[in-house]
Amino acid sequence: MSTMGVVLKVLGLCAAVAMVGLGIWSLIANLSHFNLEVWAKCIWLTLFGLLLIVAETRQYAASQWVIDKLQMEFLMTFFGRGLFAFYVGTICLGDKTLANREFVGWLIGAILCAVGVVNLSYSCTGADKDGNKEGYEADNRAILNP
Asked: Is 97 within 8 Å of 26 (Cβ atoms)?
């Protein structure tokens, strides 16, 4: 794996773990008063954080099993991970649900958007076209890469 790949993986994992931890913490902190919007965002961001963790740890059998069962093979490519990370990053931008602080939302959102843009840029170099996509079955390769 290249240095850029390691940096992307570490940044993506750190942001995803922070999202999961802060999402759970924010949910617990907001238990005292019922606010459906905040609870839904906390659960949503926690689930997206878990999916980002699975996407970044895709070389492990457990992660590949989750991706296969949820039928999210797009997380196996730079393009798919890039779009997903960018999407989740834009959800976090300016939102004060995570840790009840807007700054935290901006920070995690900016990191995820940057990881997404770099993944998308990396996919434009043809890095996904090497034919050696771990976790893809033969029929998925044929369907996704005609």
From this structure: yes
Contact criterion met (CB below 8 Å) for 38 and 47: no
Instruction: Give the count of beta carbons closer than 10 Å to the beta carbon of residue 54.
Output: 20
Give me 31's structure tokens. Answer: 């238990």
Retrieve residue 33's tokens: 């008063």
Tokens coding 73: 């093979």
How far apart, in whole angstroms, are the C-alpha atoms of residue 115 and residue 7?
Answer: 9
Q: How far apart are CA 96 and CA 102, in angstroms?
A: 4
Q: In 3-state terms, what secondary structure has residue 101?
A: coil
Spatial distance between the Cα atoms of 76 and 54, rounded to a whole number of angstroms: 10
23 burial level (CB within 10 Å; 0-12, 13-18, 19+): buried
d(CA 14, CA 120): 19
Residue 59's Cα: distance from chain center in Å?
15
**Domain residues of the chain, as ranges?**
3-144
The predicted-structure confidence for 50-81, as pLDDT tens digits, reads as follows 999 998 898 888 888 888 888 888 888 889 98
Please tell me the pTM assigned to this model: 0.78
